[in-house]
Amino acid sequence: MSKLDFDDLVLLRLLLSVEGIGSSKIRNLLSRFKKLKNIFEADTHSLTNTEGISTNLASRIISSRKNKSQLSSLIENELKQLSAINARVITVWDTEFPPLLKKIYDPPLILYIKGELIEQDNYSISIVGTRMPTNYGKVQAERLSGDLASQGITIVSGLARGIDSIAHYSALKNNGRTVAVIGSGLDVIYPPENKKLLEEISTKGAVISEFPLGTQPDAMNFPKRNRIIAGISLGCIVIETAVTGGALQTAEHSLDQGKEVFAVPGNLGIRQSEGTNKLIQKCEAKLVTSAEDVLVELELKLKPIINKNVKLPEDLNLFEEKIINALSAEPLQIDKIASLTNLSTSDCLVHLLTLEFKGLIKQLPGKVFSRL
User: Fold this and answer.
1) Measured distance CA(345)–CA(339) in Å, rounded
2) Can you tell me the distance from the alpha carbon of 218 to that of 43, in angstroms, rounded to the nearest whole number?
3) Residue 179: φ, ψ to 5°
4) φ and ψ at residue 134, rounded to 5 degrees
5) Cα(336)–Cα(362) distance, integer angstroms
6) DSSP assignment of 38-68, as one string?
7) Under a CB-based contact definition with an 8 Å cutoff, are residues 90 and 207 in contact?
8) Which of 12, 44, 177, 248 is most open to solvent, judged by the fewest CB atoms within 10 Å of its CB?
9) Contact by Cβ (8 Å): 33, 42
10) Phi/psi at 62 (5° precision)
11) What sign does the CA torsion over 189, 240, 125, 152 have?
12) 287 and 266 Cβ atoms separated by less than 8 Å
């Protein structure tokens, strides 16, 4: 259940049901009125003094009040249904809400989730592509997803046929985490043959949607889904897509959000390669041939999670282990390392020198140290 209480959840859904009201206008309203209930208690004049709220919009908000009782009953029933399928609703104000997604221009205010989102999922990469991949595309999707998942990176995709499904399966096969973002309600599984995959993802990751239960997978839902796929990821890898493919929408959202976009090159004359090759040709995506290419490009952003999955030599002593773990997130100055490890500066320098000889760390100017 969301941090919002039931009445606030009803009021939020009521606002979202008003034609012309989206997340940005709701933020403007909350900035002015502070609480959701205050918005519905306001008169037309007060509402129109809010940025983006016209007289017509104000009238619609006021008119929507009559639907509150009916919507309350629907949401009460929906929460029971969510509980029955081990799912729940979270909002943008909850700590579980993906932090990267909060930063996009138009984040969803409500997410329906089946499974768990954990800190590791903040280091996610999306893999998207055609529903009709070639054998080459299938091999690349399985290889890239598996290699990244084995490094502790969460794989995000859209549960569609083809590249999406392969990316999810390969992450799970390599004991990794994966998140599926779908364009329907959590109780409407599409494609239907992915029912088992959805259940497995929900136990080793999460399935999320911004659409209420019962929502069908209509074509207009998928561009909205694609912005979420891009939004919760540090970068996006496109593997085979036509020039009109939905994967290009995800790439476009990623670019708009300031994320890195990568593309696997394909054979000339193959329709499934036209989109990826065009991304590379227009310098909108970096050409990648392996997971290492992605890791190198996103090294700083992925360093915390990658370091946690590096197997340390067995001959490290207790003090060396304490130091190497202290360096897992970012380069640190010697005094900070001493403080984190409860060791003296002189002891730290001795053990740091040993770690440097073992090829595990490097020294930077100013007695600053970082892991390799």
Assistant:
1) 9
2) 36
3) -120, 130
4) -80, 170
5) 16
6) HHHH--HHHHHTSTT--HHHHHHHHHGGGGH
7) no
8) 44
9) yes
10) -65, -40
11) positive
12) no
End-to-end CA distance of the chain: 42
Rounded (5°) CA angle 126-131-132: 130
- Residue 98, helix vs strand vs coil: coil
Q: Of all helices (H) and strands (E), which one includes residue 90?
A: strand 87-91
Name residue, tokens 């399985």.
Answer: 142
| CA dist., res. 153 & res. 246, Å (int) | 23
**pLDDT per residue rounded down to tens, the chain (372 residues):** 566 789 999 999 999 999 999 888 999 999 999 999 999 999 999 999 999 999 999 999 999 999 999 999 999 999 999 999 999 999 999 999 999 999 998 899 999 999 999 999 999 999 999 999 999 999 999 999 999 999 899 999 999 999 999 999 999 999 999 999 999 999 999 999 999 999 999 999 999 999 999 999 999 999 999 999 999 999 999 999 999 989 999 999 999 999 999 999 999 999 999 999 999 999 999 999 999 899 888 876 776 666 555 555 667 888 888 888 788 656 789 998 988 888 899 889 989 988 888 888 888 888 888 877
DSSP for 253-283 reads HHHHTT-EEEE----TT-HHHHHHHHHHHTT
Rounded CA-CA distance 41/47 in Å is 10
Q: At residue 158, what are phi and psi to the nearest 5 degrees?
A: -110, 10
Residue with tokens 């993802």: 201
- CA separation (Å) from 216 to 184, 222, 350? 5, 11, 63
- Helices within the chain (DSSP H only): 6-16, 23-33, 36-41, 44-48, 55-63, 68-84, 99-102, 135-149, 163-173, 195-203, 221-231, 246-256, 271-281, 291-297, 299-308, 318-326, 334-341, 345-357
